[in-house]
Amino acid sequence: MTLVKTTLWTGLSTLIKVISTYIMWKVIAVYTGPSGLATIEQFQNFIQICRSLSCSLNQGIIKYVSEYKNDEENKSRILSSAFTVYLVASIIVSIVLFYFSADISEKIFNSLAYRQAIILLGVSITLYSLNNLFLSVLNGEFEIKKYVSCNIVNTIFIFTITVYLIIHYGIQGGLIGFVLNQSIALLFTIYLVIKSKWFKLSSYIQGIDKDSINKLAKYAIISFVPILLVPVTLVILRKYIAHTLSWQDAGYWQGIMKLSDGYLILMELMISVYFLPKISMIKTLPELKAEIIYSYRLVIPLALLGATSVFLLKKQIVIALYSAQFFPMLILFKYQLIGDVARIGAWLLANIMAAKAMIKILVISEIIFNLSYISLTIIFVHYFGLIGTSIGFTINYIIYFFAMIFFTVRCVRNGAFQLVT
């Protein structure tokens, strides 16, 4: 499937996801208020951490399923090892959540009211992990239509269930809805995988292969570091902004971040769904250069078009997604959108690093640039107030973009990508 077709299919999925997500968050804001929004956001971060511990091999599965597409023996070793690790890891996480549910609820929410939601997370996390495993296999096999279909079904299910639960049960309902994310779509995903010609049950029950585990472990580090760092970074920044300015200003910042993430989902999905498996299959330097040029010619103009459209329609967008009370966040758009374009450019090159297993560079850069994001935001908020949040964001991603260019060129020149010239 070409990049254009991949973009169209992921675009359909993303459109449905973006629309449902923002309707859902508006429902959360209306029915639970600011405190409910903060509670659910806090729980979302905790869910991310738990799931990173139980299923952090997705990128590795995509890479090696794609790379071993015509090598059944090696592909089976990868799949069987991943299946075993996911199953064992999710069971361990579940036991911890069951046993320490009260302590976790008290620590995160200063209340025991959310213990049941944490226990439910423990029940569902194995289902979530297996669904992610099979979605990664579909992605690696380049079954884009099936992959997108699974995501669409999951989005519709979660939107319907979560909105219903929030309206009728408030915060508790919202937590339950987010806990069930992807878990209830497992049966549909399994159905599509089993129907595929390449599916073999024996590929998943061969136990653990040491060499395969070592390969996948590299990608576990890649996935775990950002999934852990990003929620922690956001929590630190949210607390700092609220303490230095106000919780209302923290809400404006949260609003622009959610808006930014929403319209960039298409770009992120397009890069991860198409670019990662495509780059993994490239063996020569001319092919890599051609693919990078082709991708940038499509991705950057789309990012610029999206950023420009959002900027020109910012008032209408704020009213549609939030309300006129959020107009103070309009000052954040200019710098935030510049940073978004730089972020897209950096993502493209970061995926080359991921595809070519440049683990050390990726992990170190994730740590450094999350720390620099915190530092720059604190500095600019101190001197410029609310708009400093977007200035810090933009400067950080511009530096990150240039850093990814430097590392990519360096890896090509020293032969780290192991490409035929």
Helix fraction by DSSP (H/I, runs of at least 4)? over 70%
Kindly name the structural category. Answer: mainly alpha
Which spans have pLDDT < 50 for at least 5 consecutive residues? none
**Percent in strands:** under 5%
Give the overall form.
Answer: globular
The helix tally amounts to 14
Rounded Rg: 21 Å
| Separation, N- and C-terminal Cα atoms | 26 Å
- Note the main sheet: none
- Mean pLDDT equals 82
The domain count comes to 2
One letter per element, helices H and strands E, the order comes to: HHHHHHHHHHHHHH
Tell me how many strands there are.
0
Q: Could you walk me through the main structural features you see in this protein, from its secondary elements to its overall organization?
A:
The relative contact order is 0.11. The protein has helices at residues 3-54, 58-67, 72-99, 101-109, 115-140, 144-179, 186-195, 210-244, 247-281, 285-312, 314-321, 333-355, 359-384, 387-413. The two termini are 26 Å apart. The chain contains 14 helices and no strands. It has 421 residues and is mostly helical. It folds into two domains: 1-228, no CATH class; 245-421, no CATH class.
Topology:
Elements: H1 3-54, H2 58-67, H3 72-99, H4 101-109, H5 115-140, H6 144-179, H7 186-195, H8 210-244, H9 247-281, H10 285-312, H11 314-321, H12 333-355, H13 359-384, H14 387-413
Helix pairs in contact: 1-3, 1-5, 1-6, 1-8, 1-9, 2-3, 2-5, 2-8, 2-9, 3-5, 3-8, 4-5, 5-6, 5-7, 6-7, 8-9, 8-13, 9-10, 9-12, 10-12, 12-14, 13-14
Brief sketch in words of this structure:
By secondary structure, this protein is an all-alpha fold. The protein is 84% helix and 0% strand. It has 14 helices and no strands.
